[in-house]
């Protein structure tokens, strides 16, 4: 935040100097007369011009009549990309946004304004933080003009929304098992402990909910590490058949409990290029889901196809996923049936982890699904290392 304030202040200083230079060296403030400038002046002016032209922040200067006397390309893009220049246009012709108008009006009265939030509602919604400063003094009668800088804060705002949603989801997800734990502890304290059978049952419910919280925290930490760029891949050729065998063995008990058959259809010679531990994690999450969402006596089959990229298929013949959910399936905490997922100990983060790990490999994960027939998740991996 401090850095942003310093950068914003520097930009404003540069912008004011630029405007002052233009006004001084110009017969007309817009069409500069280069002959009248000294070489030093010219060098400084072209440096400032280049800065104003290259900067991402929109810059707009209006005179006392609220007409534009200077602007840069970023401002033109913001207000009206189709016109060649904003020159001489009235501010009211450029925008109907009252927040912008009132900030510039204050600037002309000699009042500096900052933190004015401006939103555009074009095809691409953008959010700006507008700062307006007065320029020059009109003999104690307000300012000669006002200079506004539009800082694009769209990305910061979007990240803030994602952060808030994430926090609220996490709190919600933690509260459910925690409430159950507290309720069963209270029941035990209120006498259920005397009955050995109830005691055993309640303790196992408490353990199940505590494990859920544990799993959730592990997944959150994992996802945060991956997204924060704190996971380094050690990619190398991996024997896919052997890896799938390992993952299937580790999930064999779970599959047997659900009467689900795991089938390794990968050719024993296949080698893929990946971080073995991370690929194991992706396969575990997908095969585990295949088991969870399979039907009784269902099958989860893992196969491979070679092309411009390696494709690893995890296919189940479970209930399938309604098509309207497919687009959001890899989002954090997105679940088709929240209650069912929770019931099966799901955190709602497994697919998000798979997605981020696939991206880290410069690959991706996709899904196709047919209701009543089953789903196929596909991990796409580049053939060799890509930086
Ligand atoms: P969860 O912990 O709930 O499994 P995931 O991120 O792994 O979280 O999956 C998100 C949701 O996607 C699941 O809750 C489920 O609704 C759906 N899903 C994932 N895999 C399958 C599958 N093989 N068949 C049907 N639905 C699935």
Descriptive overview:
The protein has helices at residues 2-25, 39-54, 73-79, 91-94, 98-108, 154-189, 196-227, 240-250, 252-257, 276-292, 323-326, 338-343, 350-360, and strands spanning 58-63, 68-71, 113-120, 126-137, 143-152, 235-239, 261-264, 271-275, 299-306, 309-316, 364-370, 374-382. It is α+β, with helices and mostly antiparallel strands. The strands form three sheets. The chain has a five-stranded antiparallel β-sheet, with helices on both faces. Helix 7 (196-227) packs parallel to helix 13. It is elongated, with a radius of gyration of 31 Å. The two termini are 32 Å apart. The protein binds adenosine-5'-diphosphate. Residues 285, 289-290, 293, 316, 318, 321, 329, 335-337, 341, 346-352, 375 line the site of adenosine-5'-diphosphate.
What labels would you give this structure?
single chain; 387 residues; alpha+beta; five-stranded antiparallel beta sheet; five-stranded mixed beta sheet; binds adenosine-5'-diphosphate
Ligand inventory? adenosine-5'-diphosphate
The protein's oligomeric status is single chain
**First-last Cα distance:** 32 Å
Mean pLDDT across the residues is 86
Largest sheet: 5 strands, antiparallel
Q: Strand-residue fraction?
A: 15-25%
Assign a percent range to the helix content: 40-55%
In short:
This protein is α+β, with helices and mostly antiparallel strands. The chain has 13 helices and twelve strands.
What is the strand and helix layout of this fold?
Blueprint: H1 2-25, H2 39-54, E1 58-63, E2 68-71, H3 73-79, H4 91-94, H5 98-108, E3 113-120, E4 126-137, E5 143-152, H6 154-189, H7 196-227, E6 235-239, H8 240-250, H9 252-257, E7 261-264, E8 271-275, H10 276-292, E9 299-306, E10 309-316, H11 323-326, H12 338-343, H13 350-360, E11 364-370, E12 374-382
Parallel strand pairs: 7-9
Antiparallel strand pairs: 1-2, 1-5, 3-4, 4-5, 6-8, 9-10, 10-12, 11-12
Helix pairs in contact: 1-2, 6-7, 7-13, 8-10, 10-13
The structure holds adenosine-5'-diphosphate.
Residues 285, 289-290, 293, 316, 318, 321, 329, 335-337, 341, 346-352, 375 line the site of adenosine-5'-diphosphate (ADP).
């Amino acid at each position: 935040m401090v850095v942003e304030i310093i950068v914003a202040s520097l930009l404003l200083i540069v912008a004011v100097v630029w405007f002052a230079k233009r006004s001084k060296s110009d017969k007309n403030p817009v069409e500069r007369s280069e002959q009248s400038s000294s070489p030093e002046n010219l060098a400084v002016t072209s440096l400032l011009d280049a800065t104003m032209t290259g900067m991402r922040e929109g810059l707009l200067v209006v005179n006392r009549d609220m007409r534009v006397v200077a602007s840069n390309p970023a401002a033109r893009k913001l207000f009206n990309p189709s016109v060649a220049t904003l020159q001489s246009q009235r501010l009211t012709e450029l925008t109907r946004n009252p927040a912008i108008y009132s900030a510039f009006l204050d600037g002309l009265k000699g009042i500096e304004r900052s933190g004015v939030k401006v939103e555009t509602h074009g095809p691409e919604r953008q959010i700006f933080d507008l700062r307006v400063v007065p320029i020059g003094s009109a003999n104690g009668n307000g300012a000669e003009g006002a200079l506004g800088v539009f800082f694009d804060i769209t990305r910061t705002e979007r990240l803030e929304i994602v952060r808030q949603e994430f926090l609220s989801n996490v709190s919600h997800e933690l509260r459910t098992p925690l409430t159950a734990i507290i309720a069963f502890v209270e029941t035990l304290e209120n006498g259920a402990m005397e009955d050995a059978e109830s005691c055993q049952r309640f303790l196992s419910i408490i353990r199940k909910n505590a494990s859920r919280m544990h799993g959730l925290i592990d997944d959150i930490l994992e996802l945060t590490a991956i997204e924060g760029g704190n996971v380094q891949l050690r990619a190398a050729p991996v024997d896919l058949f052997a890896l799938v065998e390992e993952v299937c063995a580790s999930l064999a008990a779970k599959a047997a409990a659900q009467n689900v058959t795991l089938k390794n259809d990968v050719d024993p010679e296949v080698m893929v290029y990946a971080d073995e531990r991370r690929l194991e994690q992706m396969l575990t999450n997908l095969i585990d889901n295949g088991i969870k969402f399979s039907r009784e006596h269902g099958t989860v089959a893992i196969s491979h196809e070679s092309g411009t990229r390696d494709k690893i298929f995890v296919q189940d013949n479970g209930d399938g996923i309604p098509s309207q959910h497919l687009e959001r399936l890899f989002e954090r905490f997105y679940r088709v049936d929240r209650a069912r997922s929770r019931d099966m100990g799901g955190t709602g983060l497994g697919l998000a982890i798979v997605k981020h790990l696939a991206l880290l490999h410069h690959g991706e994960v996709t899904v196709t699904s047919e209701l009543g027939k089953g789903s196929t998740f596909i991990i796409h991996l580049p053939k060799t290392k890509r930086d």
